[in-house]
Structure formats: structure tokens, C-alpha cells
Design goal:
This protein has 8 helices and 9 strands. It is an alpha/beta fold. It folds into 2 domains: about 120 residues, Nucleotidyltransferase, domain 5, CATH 3.30.420; about 150 residues, ATPase, nucleotide binding domain (Nucleotidyltransferase, domain 5, 2-Layer Sandwich), CATH 3.30.420. Bound molecules: adenosine-5'-diphosphate. Adenosine-5'-diphosphate (ADP) binds next to helix 3.
Length: about 270
């Protein structure tokens, strides 16, 4: 059996996915990017291959993507995260139906991607200038509230009443605003809910730039947060699809492209 690797070196996390020649998911691994992307990407890949009992020679083709993709020189190819995200999303949602709009929230950016009927990217919009509306903002809020990001969803659903409004448009000021709300005796639950709605509003503005088409898919690490999903769905007034492994869609897409490139290069 031949295997194909997709390596997504993001600003916050390294995601590696290995698939087989039928494009079936074999395994994936996530680790922090840290300051030495290259070293950690290799380490993560070695660990994943060991876990799956796959030898180096069994890997036929490797595609790197993401912010740090050019640092992974051993890759056979590298592609933009927009393309990889689109390919991965269409494949991950094949049982769900057609995907026309992708919302991706990463560690330090957020994106909206619009697809045509064939799954090709027709337009995208990106916010990589401002931390508000990104995973970093959620990480900072969770830290200020002394909880982990994995606890945000539970806190969100425990909030009672109207979500608090977080008015600061800058992540740094929003942090001060959160500390002020705590000082005014608002509960962690109500603040978390307010943070989710403030991110949802920002993200929807971004999606409006490419047009909101039904068949909405949400991925990236923050899509693991069901509270944020709930806020985006309520603000949009539409259901959105979350794949089984939202943080690895882009690396999955890179691996799929690897199967196609390999088949093309080795055609009879
Ligand atoms: P990037 O590709 O830019 O490195 P990711 O898509 O990997 O970013 O997302 C990283 C973000 O995902 C983190 O900043 C964090 O806020 C969020 N995240 C990661 N794991 C979880 C989790 N279990 N629950 C909620 N949020 C999470």
C-alpha cells in the first residue's frame, strides 16, 4: 500500500494527515507549531508514522501547505492553504452534500472561501491583520478567564439570558473589556458567550465579502468549540456543517492533492 502525507504548518499548530491511495484517512496528528516549525513538523511526522506503523519508504508523495509550508523542503510539492482547505472540505463533507462556502478560523487569521458547483475556489477573503476573530483571541480570553479553550463550549451553553456585548474591535482592548466585565461581577459563562457572539459577528462580515451561499462548512481549530458554532449559526440564521476533524481539513486536502499529483506524474 502507498501512503500520502499532507503537512499543514499553521501559525499555531502543525497538522499532519496520512491517507492511502484510495484517499481514505489513515491517521492524523496535531502538535504546537512553537518557534521551530521545521523541527516540530519532522518530529510530528515521525511520531505519526510510528503510531501507524508506516515506514518512510511507504510514503509515496508529500504535500506541504500553511503558513510555514516553504520551510518543509522535503515535500514533493507545496500548495496554498486556500486550495488545500477547499479540496479537504469538499472531501470531508461528501456525505453531507455540496459545500459552497467555507469559514476557516485559524490561530492568527480567519478566512471565507467561496466555491463553485465543481468545488473550485472562486473567491476568498482573509483577515490576517487583526487578532480579534481568530483563535489567538479565544486563547487570550480563555487565559484571562482562567479556563482552557476546550472548556469554552460548556461555559457558553451554561450562560443564561442575553449574551453580553463585547464592543472593543481590537483584541487588546477586548481583553481589558473582559477584565472590566469580571470586575463588574459578570459570570465567566456570560462573558464567554459574549466573546463568541462578537467573533461570530466579525466572521460573518468577512463571509459577506465573498457572499453567503448555502452549503456552509466551518473548520480550523476553533470549529471544535460548539459554543462558537452555535453563535455563528444564530447570527447567520443558517445551519453550518462541522466535519469530524475540523482542525485537519487543510492537511487532508493537501494529502488528497498528493494522490492526484502522484497519479498524474506516474501515468502510463
Ligand atoms: P493554524 O492553522 O493557524 O495554526 P488552527 O486551525 O490549528 O490554526 O487553530 C488553532 C486554534 O484552535 C487555537 O488557537 C485554539 O484557539 C483553537 N483550538 C484548538 N483546540 C481546541 C479545542 N479542543 N477546543 C476549542 N478550540 C481549540
Amino acid at each position: 500500500m502507498r501512503y500520502f502525507t499532507g503537512i499543514d504548518i499553521g501559525s499555531t499548530a502543525i497538522k499532519i494527515t496520512i491517507i492511502d491511495e484510495n484517499k481514505e484517512l489513515v491517521g492524523h496528528k496535531i502538535s504546537a507549531s512553537g518557534s521551530m516549525f521545521y523541527k516540530y513538523a519532522h518530529q510530528t511526522l515521525d511520531d505519526l508514522m510510528k503510531e501507524l506503523n508506516i515506514a518512510k519508504n511507504d510514503i509515496a508523495y508529500t504535500v506541504a501547505t500553511g503558513y510555514g509550508r516553504k520551510l518543509f523542503k522535503e515535500a514533493d510539492e507545496n500548495i496554498s492553504e486556500i486550495t488545500a482547505n477547499a479540496i479537504g472540505a469538499v472531501a470531508a463533507a461528501k456525505e453531507y452534500g455540496e459545500i459552497k462556502t467555507i469559514i476557516n478560523i485559524g490561530g492568527q487569521d480567519s478566512k471565507a472561501i467561496s466555491l463553485d458547483d465543481m468545488g473550485n475556489v472562486v473567491n476568498f477573503a482573509m483577515n490576517d491583520r487583526c487578532a480579534a476573530g481568530t483563535g489567538k483571541f479565544l486563547d487570550a480570553c480563555a487565559m484571562n478567564l482562567e479556563i482552557g479553550v476546550e472548556e469554552l463550549a460548556h461555559r457558553h451553553f451554561s450562560s443564561k439570558g442575553t449574551p453580553l456585548s463585547i464592543n472593543s474591535t481590537c483584541a487588546v482592548f477586548a481583553e481589558s473589556e473582559i477584565i472590566g466585565l469580571l470586575g463588574n461581577n459578570h459570570s465567566v459563562e456570560d462573558i464567554v458567550c459574549g466573546v463568541h457572539y462578537s467573533i461570530a459577528k466579525r466572521v460573518i462580515k468577512l463571509v459577506k465579502r465573498v457572499g453567503i451561499k448555502e452549503g456552509i462548512y466551518f473548520d480550523g481549530g476553533p470549529a471544535l468549540n460548539a459554543g462558537l458554532v452555535n453563535a455563528i449559526e444564530n447570527e447567520l440564521g443558517k445551519k453550518i456543517f462541522i466535519p469530524a476533524y475540523p482542525q485537519v481539513t487543510t492537511s487532508y486536502g493537501a494529502a488528497i492533492l498528493g494522490v492526484d499529483s502522484y497519479s498524474y506524474q506516474n501515468r502510463e
